[in-house]
Specification:
The chain is α+β, with helices and mostly antiparallel strands. 17% of the residues lie in helices and 32% in strands.
Amino acid sequence: MKITSALSISFLLFILITACEKEFTPETTYDGPEMVVEGYITKGSGALPPYVILTKSIEYSSSIGSDILTDIFIHNAEVSISDGNNKVQLQELCVSDLQALPPVLRDAILQAIGIPNINLDSTGFDVCIYTDLLGIVGLGIDVREGGTYDLEIIADDFDTVTATTTIPYGVLIDSLSYRNHPSYPANDSLVEVVAHFRDPIGPNYYRSFSQRNEESFYPSSTQGTNGSVSNDKIFEGQAFSFSVIRGQDPFSDFDFNTFGYFWRGDQVTFRASNLDYSHFRFWQTLEYNTGSQGPFGTYTRIESNIKGGLGIWGGSSYNEYTLDIPE
């Protein structure tokens, strides 16, 4: 009865508060679209070639439809990457450009550059990126750990945009293991995956991903963090173990009972990425801002390393580790 009464009082208070609320319409300071950059250069086994997605910002009050999505991409821009010795021009490539190719070749290119193989007839809009096509066959920009990479973008109706990122040296995970679910044996089908690790001396910034069987990789949080990224301020130089919280499609149904766990019989792949500081801060502030929504949430400004626009040009290196969990 005490629990029921408390819930009832809370519900009544919520009704009273929301009934007194007035619609809040913030003042707009929208002065026109800005260039939004989402670009990555990554070192790792099977890594995608460098790519950049260019879109333009819209007013937060705009209604999102297929016409807006079609017009949001910035076309015919000059996008280049320099490693200090060589400069490579990226080529614009849209999913619609590939429709005339044989399906086997088209799907191979889509997979190589990371564009989802979507049905354009059903979505009503096209997806376009700028990518180093020569990088698919290993003839593009030299992507290496310790490298510094400058991005420059020149597009009509926008100021020239620049950014710089680095690819840090990878940090290895010692091993992966698993342990029973906390409620075992009552729950004997789910397990926790555990990574064993020693952090090297020096500032390090990490981002984690996990893959279950043939599913896609999804950002994965780790024990003690609220998002997919972490730094080593509280564990610098230490050896320890941490739980790998299974990442999942954010648009899939959420099940509190299975969230974060893996199943017996799964093959688990853990991707441990190393970022530079600005790349880390972008994801840290973005994930914090996303997780603090709601009536009592606080706004956090998302940090960006893009000069003349918004977004991120991020370098990273990664290593992958696979664990087969027996049934």
